[in-house]
Structure formats: structure tokens, C-alpha cells
Amino acid sequence: MSAQLLDGRILSTHIRKQISQQAATLSAQGHQPGLAVILVGENPASQVYVRNKIKACQEHGLYSVYDVYPDNFTQTDLLARITALNADPRIHGILVQLPLPAHIDSHRVLEAIAPHKDVDGFHIANAGALMTGAPLFRPCTPYGCMKMLESIDAPVRGAHAVIVGASNIVGKPMAMLLLQAGATITICNSKTRDLASHTRSADILVVATGRPRMITGDMVKPGAIVIDVGINRITEGENKGKLCGDVDFDSVRNVAGWITPVPGGVGPMTITMLLVNTIEAAQRACTATPQT
Ligand code: NDP
């Protein structure tokens, strides 16, 4: 048996067509959606992610501001910049690329973003709203995973969903969204005993650990839907320099019913959902201040 491919690039292309139309409509009403992206430091992976986000804005008619600051940028100056962006009516979404340099308190910075512009959904008010079932913004990566499940009409209600990884940006919000969709949830972390006994009972398996290819075919239930969030750079062997996920694609594809590839799976969906959240923020602003 070979799993069907859950292709994030194809689904993204489809959603992005709608994004372009919505951005054009909002722009015609004087509310061109605007996203500000802030990068502090010279982390090469972050530079690539941020460039891709800005490029996506430009391709789909969103206004964007890209701030790049050196490693030694102070927390005070960063907070001042966020305050200015909070007050800027051209900006509907603010994203601070993580990780931040060690001298900056990430929590403090994320809490400084106005919740109605927090398109990453990391502010405590948005995390709380998600927890209570009324999210203002859904964090982009789990939101993208939900869209992928929707795209194949996955029977989420009543399914057993196992999430391997419990971070605030992926694992925990993923669990909340699946729970709201009616799944029964198991969340695993690095201390979980006998991980395979959990993963083997998953109808839907979401893996977000940052541990390359840790989920192998013998850990997966036949026919399961497997969503691989991991992005890892291969450091040795013939594929050195290429990307791989947290799932061992070659062995799992022989067991699963559906599987996301890396690259080309969850990655493109994360950027797409960032645009969706920015459009939603602009639509709210448009409703709040109708043009006369
Ligand atoms: P974090 O490092 O913040 O969290 C990793 C989680 O995985 C932790 O909860 C950790 O457990 C758990 N974990 C680690 N090792 C194991 C193990 N052996 N068994 C079970 N659980 C384990 O990572 P992120 O959530 O930020 O990212 C995870 C992966 O997803 C990375 O590869 C990252 O690059 C990728 N990513 C991809 C995105 C995309 O757009 N495709 C977006 C964001 C992330 P514990 O809590 O006990 O430490």
C-alpha cells in the first residue's frame, strides 16, 4: 500500500487565488491588507522564512513592511517599534520572527503586539481565546494542518488524533483545533513512555518535534493520515543539505493512507495561513471603520 500525497503546494495555490481576490477587494475599499515582519539577528533559516513571507505578500497584493535589525538591537527599541506598528493604520498584522536573540525576552515582545494584529496567534489573549473555542487568530501552522485535513474531507470527528510535540506554536494549538473539530486527543512529548504504543493507535498523526525521521513505518496505524510538520536539514550522507521531516517518509508512506511531504507539505501552508490571517485582520479593520 502506498499513501496518497497531501500536497501543501497545490492546496496553497488554490487558497492563494482567493487571497489575491480578497486583497484586491479590500484595497479597492481603501483597506489594502498590510503585514509587518520583524527580524532581529542573522539566523540564516529565519532570513529565508522571512523573505518567503514578504515575497508572498508582494505576490498577492498585500502591503508589507520588512524590518531587519542587528543581533545587538535592544529590547527597548524593539518594543518601541512594535508600539509604533500597533498604531499604524496601514498595518493589520505584525509578526516577530522567532527565535529572538537571547538578550531579548520573547514572551514580553509577543505580549507587546496588539492582539488584533497578532496574526501569528501567539499573544496570550489569542492563545486563551483559542482555548475557549473562540479564536481571533489561529496559529498559522496548525491552521494550515486543519485546512489540509479539510481538503481531503478527513473524518476528524470521533477520530483519535495523536500529536507528537507540545510546543506553544505547533503542538498545543494543534491539539485545541483538533479537539474543537471533535477528535479525541493524545499529546506526546519527550518524556512520553512507549511513544509507538500511542502513535500506532492514531487515525490522525501530527508530528512536530524537530527530530529528523523519528516516526517510522512500524509506529503508524495502517491507513492513518500523517501530517509531518518537521523541517530539518540533513547533515550527512548523499542527501546532505536537503530537507527532511520528523517522519521517515519512505517507510511511513507504505503504511499510511495519506502523508504530507517535506518539503512541499505543511511549510507552504504556514505562509498561506499567515496571509489568510492578515486578510481576516484587514477585514475586521474595514468593518470597524467603514469608508464614507
Ligand atoms: P519545539 O522544540 O518548540 O518543541 C518540540 C516538541 O517536541 C516538544 O514538546 C518536545 O517535548 C517534543 N519532543 C522532542 N523530542 C521528542 C521525542 N523524542 N518524542 C516525543 N516528543 C518529543 O519545536 P517546534 O514545535 O517549534 O517545531 C517542531 C518542528 O516543526 C521543527 O522541526 C520545526 O522546524 C518545525 N516547524 C515547521 C513549521 C512549518 O511551517 N512547517 C513551523 C514551525 C515549526 P518536551 O515538551 O518534552 O520538550
Structure description:
The protein has 292 residues and is an alpha/beta fold. It folds into two domains: 86 residues, 3-Layer(aba) Sandwich (Rossmann fold); 129 residues, Rossmann fold, CATH 3.40.50.720. Helices cover 40% and strands 15% of the residues. β2, α2 and β3 form a beta-alpha-beta unit. The mean pLDDT is 96. The chain binds NADPH dihydro-nicotinamide-adenine-dinucleotide phosphate (NDP). The site of NADPH dihydro-nicotinamide-adenine-dinucleotide phosphate has 26 residues, from α10.
Features:
292 residues; alpha/beta; Rossmann fold; 2 domains; six-stranded parallel beta sheet; three-stranded parallel beta sheet; 40% helix; binds NADPH dihydro-nicotinamide-adenine-dinucleotide phosphate
Secondary structure layout:
Layout lengths: L3 E2 L2 H21 L5 E7 L3 H16 L3 E7 L5 H12 L6 E4 L9 H7 L11 H8 L8 H12 L8 E5 L6 H10 L3 E5 L6 H5 L4 E4 L17 E4 L3 E2 L9 E2 L4 H4 L5 E2 L6 H23 L4
Parallel strand pairs: 1-11, 2-3, 2-4, 5-6, 5-7, 7-8, 8-11
Antiparallel strand pairs: 9-10
The site of NADPH dihydro-nicotinamide-adenine-dinucleotide phosphate has 26 residues, from helix 10.
In whole angstroms, how far apart are the ends? 60 Å
- Summed up, the helix count is 10
Hetero groups in this structure are: NADPH dihydro-nicotinamide-adenine-dinucleotide phosphate
Low-confidence stretches: none
The count of domains is 2
CATH fold-level topology of the largest domain: Rossmann fold
Strand residue content: 15-25%
| Average pLDDT score | 96
Shape: globular
- If strands are numbered along the chain, what order do they take across the biggest sheet? 1-11-8-7-5-6
CATH level-1 class of the largest domain: Alpha Beta
* CATH homologous superfamily (4th level) name of the largest domain: NAD(P)-binding Rossmann-like Domain
Q: Major β-sheet, in short?
A: 6 strands, parallel
**CATH-defined architecture of the largest domain:** 3-Layer(aba) Sandwich
Q: Give the total of beta strands.
A: 11
Helix/strand/pairing class, anyone? alpha/beta
Please give the radius of gyration in angstroms. 19 Å
Give the helix level as a range of percent.
40-55%
